[in-house]
Amino acid sequence: MSSTELDEMIKALSHPVRRDILNWLKQPELYFSDQEHPLSFGVCAGLIDQKTGLSQSTVSAHLATLQRAGFISRKKVGQWNFFARNEEVITQFLSRLNEQL
Amino acid sequence: MSSTELDEMIKALSHPVRRDILNWLKQPELYFSDQEHPLSFGVCAGLIDQKTGLSQSTVSAHLATLQRAGFISRKKVGQWNFFARNEEVITQFLSRLNEQL
DNA sequence: ATTATATATTGCTATATCGCGATTTAACGA
DNA sequence: TCGTTAAATCGCGATATAGCAATATATAAT
Q1: How far apart are CA A32 and CA B18, in angstroms?
Q2: Domain spanning A3-100 has what CATH number?
Q3: Out of B3, B10, B101, closest to residue A94 by CB
């Protein structure tokens, strides 16, 4: 993980809504039990929109930020986009921060 | 540590210069061996200014940000201000992040 | 083909952050 | 008291970020 990438990751975490999203995705069955599709796909954008209470376009941008940072992945199924945490990346980020901070 | 405080801490880390400063303060004897005063006081602001290459006022603001977040402490001795890491706070921050992320 | 749904993208405004030079404040020394 | 040094604070312009509504795009359903 380059220092530029690390920077992008920390910046991605520097907004409370994006941290909330990461947290919700940690336990989808707890926060998105109402999803029609299997949670194994991930959580679809619309439900995340709802949960934040922000506009669709705003949340879409937040999800893009988290994805660019590598924290989440997107899986497109039909007309839906499902998001899930990249646990390996998150683990790697935390250990990098533990070393370097 | 409240969620507001956590937010302030992450935001404080979201600037590369501020992370640099925290890193330099980890090994003052390595990065500030030219300091006239004992390094046990901490590192004085002027030397940090120099090392960043940014203006005095800019660095002063960065140091204030780090201090507000709790990551560093200031010790005033005569006309100098010495800064040092708050290791306990940093450790606490890291463990909080490890849990919550 | 048309319509509906899901979501990304665009264009915009408002606010926050960064960096600087100039000024102020504080402490020291002559 | 006056000049010097250290560092905070102020005022400013430039850039980045956040939010929204509107639009575009892609898929699905009728």
Answers
A1: 37
A2: 1.10.10.10
A3: B101
What letter represents residue B59's amino acid? V
3-state secondary structure of A26: coil
Give me the mean pLDDT over the B75-94 stretch: 97
Task: Return the bridge partners of A81, or none.
Answer: A76
Alpha-carbon span A45 to A14, nearest angstrom: 21
A23 in contact with B at a CB cutoff of 8 Å? yes
Give CA–CA dist B32/A1, Å, rounded. 28
Q: How far is A20 from chain B (nearest CA, A)?
A: 9
**CATH of the domain spanning B3-96, picked from 1.10.340.30, 1.10.10.10, 3.20.20.110, 3.40.50.2300:** 1.10.10.10
A61: confidence class by pLDDT, cuts 50, 70, 90: very high
pTM of the model: 0.92
Q: Provide the CA B58 to C1' D13 distance, Å, integer.
A: 15
